[in-house]
Amino acid sequence: MENLLESKNITKIFSVGGLLSRRRILAVDNVSFSIPAGKPTTTALVGESGSGKTTIGRLILGFTKPTSGKILWQGKDIWKLRGKEWRAYRKNVQAVFQDPYESLDPRCKIVDTLMEPVEKFRLADSRSEATKIIADTIESIGLRSEILEKYPHQVSGGEKQRIMLGRALLIRAKLIVADEPVSMIDASLRASVLNLMKDIKSKYDVSFIYVTHDISTAYILSDYIIITYLGSIMEYGDFDRVVTNPRHPYVKLLMDSVPIPDPRRKWKETVKLKEREESIPPKDLAKFGSRCKFCDRCAEVADICWKKPPPAIEIEEGHRASCFLYA
Amino acid sequence: MGTSNRARALLNVRNLRVYYRVRSSSVRAVDGVTFDVKPREIFSIVGESGCGKSTLANAIIRLLEPPAYIASGEVMLKDVNLLELDDQRINDFRWKEISILPQSAMNALNPVMKVYDQIKDGVTAHEHRLPDNEIKKRVEFMANKLMLPSYTFKSYPCQLSGGMRQRSLLVLALILDPSLVIIDEPTSAVDVVTQRKILEFLRMRRDEAGTSIILITHDVAVTAEIADTMMVMYAGKVCEIGDVVNIFEDPFHPYTKALIEAVPVLGVKSEVKGLSGLPPDLINPPSGCRFHPRCPDAIEVCRLEEPQLKEVKPNHVVMCHLYRRD
Amino acid sequence: MKLNSSRLKTLRNAVLSRLSFIRSNSYISSGIGLLIGVVLFGVIGILVIPYHPVRMGSVPRDLAPSFEHPLGTDSLGRDLLAQVCFGSLMSLQVGFLAGIIGFVAALAVAFIGGYRGGNLDGGLTVLTEIFLTTPSLVILILLASIVRKVEILLMALIIAIFAWAWPAKTIRAQVLSLRERGFVYLARLSGLSSIEIIVKHMIPNILPFLGSYFAVVVNAATLSAVGLEVIGLGPRHTTTLGIIFYWAMMHSAVTRGLIWWWLPPCIILFLLFLSLFLIQRGLDEIANPRLRGE
Description:
The complex is a heterotrimer.
Chain A: E1 5-16, E2 23-35, E3 42-46, H1 53-60, E4 68-73, E5 76-77, H2 83-92, E6 93-96, H3 110-120, H4 127-140, H5 157-170, E7 175-179, H6 190-204, E8 207-212, H7 215-221, E9 224-229, E10 232-238, H8 239-244, H9 249-257, H10 285-289, H11 303-307, E11 313-316, E12 319-321
Parallel strand pairs in A: 3-8, 3-9, 6-7, 7-8
Antiparallel strand pairs in A: 1-2, 1-4, 4-5, 9-10, 10-12, 11-12
Chain B: H1 3-6, E1 11-22, E2 25-37, E3 42-46, H2 53-60, E4 68-77, E5 80-81, H3 87-93, E6 98-101, H4 115-126, H5 132-145, H6 162-174, E7 180-184, H7 192-209, E8 212-217, H8 220-226, E9 229-234, E10 237-243, H9 244-249, H10 254-261, H11 300-304, E11 309-313, E12 316-319
Parallel strand pairs in B: 3-8, 3-9, 6-7, 7-8
Antiparallel strand pairs in B: 1-2, 1-4, 4-5, 9-10, 10-12, 11-12
Chain C: H1 5-24, H2 26-48, H3 80-116, H4 118-133, H5 136-146, H6 152-163, H7 165-179, H8 182-189, H9 194-205, H10 207-229, H11 241-250, H12 259-287
Helix pairs in contact in C: 2-3, 2-12, 3-4, 3-6, 3-7, 3-10, 3-11, 3-12, 4-7, 5-6, 6-10, 7-10, 8-9, 10-11, 10-12, 11-12
């Protein structure tokens, strides 16, 4: 069975600046991963700012075109799709954005915003039928249908994110890219959004790509984890395995640095991680792309790390790390 | 906090009320907050958006802007009431005895000045007696401990990452060796490893230099990592104050319990718990205990009367009717 | 989607609520009031005054102000009050026509370039910059003097050639930031086409800005028109405030002390510019709440 979504060697280079001072930024470098079909999965895409995770999200959603490589939806290159096939991709791949206060048009009532995809994807035969299925979906996720007549500023952040999830459910999307959906919501109010994501996944067979820098919230939702750094994948695999047994030096450091809400378990030694020596972004793009991205900061760096990009090496089944230590 | 501790405290805050003037009424952002900070202590103020923690921080160091104003209360730093000082005198205090690293400060750096020059400017504005080579020495010392590379201070802010700018400002806050530093959400915009560097540095600062730190955060896990004492705030009021280990082991206030249970833990795959409802309107807060509309354990009296601060264990106070003297 | 009474009612309520907002803003209401005042002045004048504003020799020349000719008559035998009333309306017409043509062109350039991006945007930006930096008055004078018979529409077109550049640049800046907003991306995910997104989501969210820019463009266009008219390059066979002033200068009205000839057009022009400025300032305040002092 082919994969639901596959990213094949995607690279994205941004050209920034005007006529006289162009800079090229290597945001995503030769990234490949896949979301399997057949069962609903959540894949966490984890990285700090500048890691490329947001750009990967945008590439998957078709908001920007890869400089090289392909994004395949059910086996077909999304940039070559036309007509019905394109509409199927558009309908099935939806998103929840980070800022709930920006995601909804402030001049439209909630119901009007939700009506648009219903009309565009022809999910109802008449307006009254459309209104009914929208109301039904809103109630099925635990919100009252009165909320549909409200404007975005009258609705809380957490409710807005749930409405976004409800919207994807309404459209019957198969894949939802959730970009930091709870980072702008208070801790005590996150549960409703996170639990809804879990529900949608199990009850409606929807897969998620959960883009975040917060590994702890990713943990309760995710089956797989991909850790990126400066545009490359460092480690990739089953979430539990990667978290309990990280192999890549950067990932080891990351897992160790996640603060634990238990005052009896604190960090033992001081963290040792050099800063990057070059300015951001690196000037020589070609050189930058042809070595391990972490080599200038890695405590276990070897000569070869400076000369070639490391391949993805299988550590155990379903767990791969891109590091010469394991070659 | 018992009176016997008051004499040893570095900072005493008593019944501080900070309001915002809004048209004809007031937003009661901080409404009667009392706590002590001892020397050589990391005191964490924990709460979610709208609880008043940033307003509290700015009030203590007298950096409030209108329409905010201090309605009542006292802030005693080493037996001097900071709220009663005039502008000239409070300027002498700031940066030398007490300093602050405000929220999102990393965006407040002057983009057309090199970082080192800005630090030097900040120092000379408050202490002209410090010679240049001494400034340089202190900057290098702290940069080393914060693992900032040498090019940081010679650069312009736009050439540095968010985490590096944040750490540069930490250097500025600590360079005159104040006995108390207030740090407001230092790690919300940085990655996990930089966050750890900053927090470990703060811990080291407390141990080696004896600096007390008021750490303001919404992140309960960060509090668990480095704080000694924590104070939980909700809607402008204090819920609970106590030793971090004690509170995590046995939280008394229902809101404290909810906050702790809302944090997912790596390795524990349980359902995330949360609170229903939303933080209250602070112009017309709920009657009685401000948390009662969302409290899973609320009883009749919670709606009618505001609870008083009660000491349930040594150095552990709670403001909740569930623990009233019966 | 049938247009039934409940939808009409919702539409009416939406329009009314917008209007009440406008009424409550004193800049806009005073600006609109002033503009309406000038228009009424012109319209009533034309209806009431029996003299022809353009035909030369229709009345005795160089008469001082009197009850029959409140502003007197000019050296070409035309009633001045009739000219001022008619000319106000004509000046408004030229200004608004040029403004509308220029503004619509600007909208097209700004949205096509700003939304699409890439080389198309690059090309359009260069074009905009060229038109912005070229000394427009010189070119306008050149064009107007080459064209043999200048009529109002042609005049408006000529002025619009330069009037579109500034709003195109400013609106494009708005489009660039608007394009990145969450709800625009959401509309893309909902399958909306670019045109639908621009019309349904982008334009409604910058309407106050667009209104403000439009007022600026009309102002600038009117000014350009006056600039051409006072040197004799205005539309023929009609009169505008600038043309009245031109004839006044041609007949040395200032040195002859004929204040009732050259002063009234200046005053009405000033009132026009003031009204447009007030409207623009008021819309600016709506667009940018910080200006309200909140």
